[in-house]
Design a protein that fits this description.
Layout (H helix, E strand, L loop, with lengths): L1 H15 L9 H13 L5 E2 L5 E5 L8 E6 L4 E7 L5 E6 L11 E7 L2 E7 L23 E2 L5 H6 L7 E4 L3 E3 L4 E4 L2 H17 L8 E6 L8 H9 L3 E9 L19 E7 L7 E2 L3 H13 L5 E6 L5 H4 L7 E9 L7 E4 H16 L15
Parallel strand pairs: 3-12, 3-13, 13-17, 14-16
Antiparallel strand pairs: 1-2, 2-12, 4-5, 4-9, 6-7, 6-9, 7-8, 10-11, 11-18, 14-15, 14-17
Helix pairs in contact: 1-4, 1-8, 4-8, 6-8
Length: 370
């Protein structure tokens, strides 16, 4: 389905170019809202900023909520020095070792951005000890070219101004794509394609497409959406850690270009004692769908990353959750990498999974051998 992949590619690239730090997702939301309306779907936005589109279905069947987060990680202005240089705080899991010498955008409102560079000490003045040391983010600063605090303030930059990696899209060999905020704009593109395909159904469960906010800020957004929707099933869409590079081989066997990934275990393990063990009905559903659609299904189990299912699973009487992902390399850096073929195959798998929810589908754990 070349046309499906083309649509997913176009949506992904467009979304990657829109700045949208956690808590400042407005421009991303407006773009997605317009695309959903063009597909004939009504939307609603809650007070936190989640965008929700519902495709009606049979109320006798378990309802399904998909989640893809609109926000991206980045920085926040903490202080403006007298000479106009800018100190920052991290927002989300920003890798400090990948920050120096990066181009960034400071988002000053009304769609306006100001370019800046995260300083990197001149190589000629770097001591041998400093060459192998990661500079803590409080010691970093951003240079926008201003010469005083007054000049910086006059440009619209102030304490609290959001900062993101300068948006970038790089088309690599074959169907591989690199750039900023593939996490999780690629999944947002997948949900737009799901909206297009699932809205054509004549029968099946109700489907709620949630484009969530503040995922990178401790997974906050999707909780309010789940509390309102009260779904029976939640399928969360995000990246999965590709382990096919020399530095990641010990983490698992998830390969770029080898198809969608089913999360079998996630746990943060660094202060946030949370994670997700998938409901057995969800595991069987994805396994059955992968066989029916002849799609290779990879598996992942990892510590160190969380998704919104960590909290959504606890809403109401409990929600049957699973994390579904696409392999990605170099996560949370300014240049993440994914494969468009994986995005397409994940989309096809999800469509097949939804079609498999009929009157015989059960969420009773005792119907499954564990």
């Amino acid at each position: 389905m070349a046309h499906m992949q083309d649509r997913i590619k176009a949506w992904t690239k467009a979304l990657m170019m829109i700045p949208g730090l956690s808590g400042y997702e407005g421009n991303v939301r407006r773009y997605i809202k317009a695309e959903l309306h063009a597909l004939g779907l009504a939307t609603r936005t809650d007070r936190l900023g989640n965008l929700i589109a519902t495709i009606a279905g049979d109320d006798e069947l378990p309802s399904v909520m998909f989640i893809a987060h609109m926000d991206q990680l980045g920085l926040i202005v903490r202080k403006i020095e007298a000479n106009g240089l800018i100190r920052v705080e991290r927002l989300g899991g920003v890798p400090e070792k990948a920050l120096p010498a990066q181009e960034v955008l400071l988002c000053v409102g009304h769609g306006r951005t100001i370019p800046g560079v995260i300083a990197n000490k001149s190589h000629h003045a770097t001591t041998p000890e400093e060459k192998y040391k990661v500079t803590p983010y409080p010691d970093l600063y951003i240079d926008c070219g201003f010469e005083s605090a007054a000049e910086t303030l006059a440009a619209g930059i102030n304490v609290g101004t959001p900062i993101v990696y300068a948006p970038n899209v790089v088309e690599l060999a074959g169907t591989r794509l690199a750039g900023t905020s593939i996490d999780d704009r690629a999944a947002c593109a997948i949900q737009l394609e799901l909206a297009r395909e699932l809205s054509k159904r004549k029968t099946g469960p109700a489907v709620h497409l949630v484009f969530s906010v503040q995922e990178e800020f401790n997974l906050r957004g999707a909780i309010t959406a789940a509390q309102v929707i009260e779904p029976d099933i939640c399928i969360q869409l995000d990246l999965a850690l590709a382990t096919d590079t020399p530095d990641m081989g010990h983490r698992g066997d998830v390969r770029l270009g080898a198809g969608p990934v089913m999360g079998m275990y996630s746990f943060h393990g660094r202060g946030t004692l949370n994670g997700c063990l998938p409901h057995p009905a969800m595991v069987k559903m994805m396994e059955d769908a992968s066989k029916a659609a002849s799609i290779n299904l990879q598996r992942s189990a990892h510590i160190g990353a969380l998704t919104e299912t960590s909290y959504v699973q606890l809403v109401g009487q409990g929600v049957a959750c699973i994390d579904m992902g696409f392999p990605a390399r170099y996560t949370h850096s300014a240049l993440e990498v994914c494969d468009l073929a994986d995005l397409e195959s994940l989309t096809l798998l999800l469509i097949a999974a939804v079609h498999g929810i009929d009157a015989s589908f059960s969420l009773d754990r005792d119907d499954y051998i564990e």
